[in-house]
Amino acid sequence: MASDDEEEECGYFYDDDDAEEDAAAGLEQAAAPPPERRADYWAITQESLPTAQKQDLSTVMNFLNIKQHQARALLIHHRWRMDGIYDHLDKGRERMLRDAGIVLQENNIMAAAGSTTPWRSVHCNVCFEDIPMGVVLTMDCGHCFCNDCWTQHFYSAVESGKKQIRCMQVKCPAFCDEDHVRRLLGRKYPEMAKRFNRFLLESYLEDNDSVKWCPSAPNCGRAIRVGTGERYCEVECPCGLSFCFNCTAHAHSPCPCTIWEKWNAKCTEGENIKWILANTKSCPKCFKAIEKNGGCNLVRCNCGQCMCWLCGGGTGLDHTWTSIAGHSCNRYKEETRGKTKDTSREQMQRYKHYYDRFKIHGDSYGVEKQKLGPTVLERVRLLEADLKRPLTIRDGDWLIRAHRRLLVSRQVLSRSYVFAYYMFGGELRMQPAGRAGLAVARNLFEDQQEQLEQHVERLSELLAGADAVAMPEAEIVQAKQKAVTLVKTVERLCGEMYKCIPDELLTLLVEPMTIAAYRPDGPDKAEELTA
């Protein structure tokens, strides 16, 4: 039989000086951190899983005045979404429970069991034996069978992987009380009772739309729970990994999940594309890529067209050691657009344009995080330790905040090129009326992207050279003012881009897409849920 501890665990689961002072005071106010946001993101470990489960179970049990197994069945039915339960309350309590397969306690238990001698024995309709009252069990639905039959029924259900076990009565939709299941299995099959307990705990993770495993590799063993209705969000696990809660890929806003998935698949072809661009040229007739495998600069395509490898122009077949008949390419000629159109190579060049910018900003993010980050922290430490300076000058939080905004905006810039590659490449299906407004929306987006790029580079340059320890006080105030201004501008431009994408661009597409909200400090951090 399962111990009481086990049952409890699984149960819930201007003057220059004045100017400097005024500027410093104004900057302090401008750089003040925003009010702390209530934690809606929790990191759940194996130890805190029962606590997380108990919170939701207790809420439903108290709200609807039902038992624990009934609350669990209702939550599983609604994928552990409290808003789903609230949305169905207009049906009435009884109907809502009935739709979820929950039957409330019947009053006439003995009559439902078909017993003619209710105070002495009950006839079990499974084994067809008259069973003493002390060894029978009645569920909420009123159906009564002997303990042995119930035990075998529970054993078979758990063995097949079920965590919700229905009554044995034919066509009865009621779920069995999990306390009864645990108690009977614990007497005869304690290992199966433990497995059942594990199933109940795992259901909180497997059947819950608000909980997903952290996709870190190697796995950190945490699951992240988000607030109700926050499917499209990005969250940072305590292990340090930031990921998109909707698709569990690495954080990728302002890029929608569908586009990010396409990009990852495209990037697997990236090395091949780079090799093709570097080592092949396109046939001027069929536009297929041709690789040169000999020393002669006259190359012949499989379609029969001959071409000069030096310039890529079409030629005849006759040639000597020094020249190709009817062809000369030693003189530079302006390329004539429109005569020949190498579509495949243009597509590769277009991909390379966006990929290079995606990677350049990604590489800059890595350098600014790994090298500039420790440098900024060391400068702040030394500045705050210099007791000879005024307190307002020693405060180096503005450096830390500016560096944090720099990292976030770098990632926004990098991913914005992924979005632009697909949005403006004709690969996404447009609404019939969408193409007319695409050009205007594109100009708006690219203008925002260009401005953001310029200000991010300025902020990066400022932080790289802002050695506040060696600066006079006047220069520190000036650098601080510039940093705060740039941070505000970068935040505004990022916010405008995050508004432009869903409002002006994604609405033009046939397939509905959504992006996570902009967070100036990056993805919200999940807090460890204590057991």
Automatic annotation (TrEMBL):
<dbReference type="Pfam" id="PF01485">
    <property type="entry name" value="IBR"/>
</dbReference>
<feature type="domain" description="RING-type">
    <location>
        <begin position="120"/>
        <end position="333"/>
    </location>
</feature>
<dbReference type="GO" id="GO:0061630">
    <property type="term" value="F:ubiquitin protein ligase activity"/>
</dbReference>
<keyword id="KW-0677">Repeat</keyword>
<keyword id="KW-0862">Zinc</keyword>
<keyword id="KW-0833">Ubl conjugation pathway</keyword>
<comment type="similarity">
    <text>Belongs to the RBR family. Ariadne subfamily.</text>
</comment>
<dbReference type="GO" id="GO:0016567">
    <property type="term" value="P:protein ubiquitination"/>
</dbReference>
<feature type="compositionally biased region" description="Acidic residues">
    <location>
        <begin position="1"/>
        <end position="23"/>
    </location>
</feature>
<dbReference type="GO" id="GO:0008270">
    <property type="term" value="F:zinc ion binding"/>
</dbReference>
<feature type="domain" description="RING-type">
    <location>
        <begin position="124"/>
        <end position="173"/>
    </location>
</feature>
<keyword id="KW-0479">Metal-binding</keyword>
<protein>
    <recommendedName>
        <fullName>RBR-type E3 ubiquitin transferase</fullName>
        <ecNumber>2.3.2.31</ecNumber>
    </recommendedName>
</protein>
<dbReference type="InterPro" id="IPR045840">
    <property type="entry name" value="Ariadne"/>
</dbReference>
<keyword id="KW-0808">Transferase</keyword>
<keyword id="KW-0863">Zinc-finger</keyword>
<comment type="pathway">
    <text>Protein modification; protein ubiquitination.</text>
</comment>
<dbReference type="InterPro" id="IPR002867">
    <property type="entry name" value="IBR_dom"/>
</dbReference>
<feature type="region of interest" description="Disordered">
    <location>
        <begin position="1"/>
        <end position="36"/>
    </location>
</feature>
<dbReference type="Pfam" id="PF19422">
    <property type="entry name" value="Ariadne"/>
</dbReference>
<dbReference type="InterPro" id="IPR013083">
    <property type="entry name" value="Znf_RING/FYVE/PHD"/>
</dbReference>
<comment type="function">
    <text>Might act as an E3 ubiquitin-protein ligase, or as part of E3 complex, which accepts ubiquitin from specific E2 ubiquitin-conjugating enzymes and then transfers it to substrates.</text>
</comment>
<dbReference type="InterPro" id="IPR001841">
    <property type="entry name" value="Znf_RING"/>
</dbReference>
<dbReference type="InterPro" id="IPR044066">
    <property type="entry name" value="TRIAD_supradom"/>
</dbReference>
<dbReference type="InterPro" id="IPR031127">
    <property type="entry name" value="E3_UB_ligase_RBR"/>
</dbReference>
<dbReference type="Pfam" id="PF26200">
    <property type="entry name" value="Rcat_RNF216"/>
</dbReference>
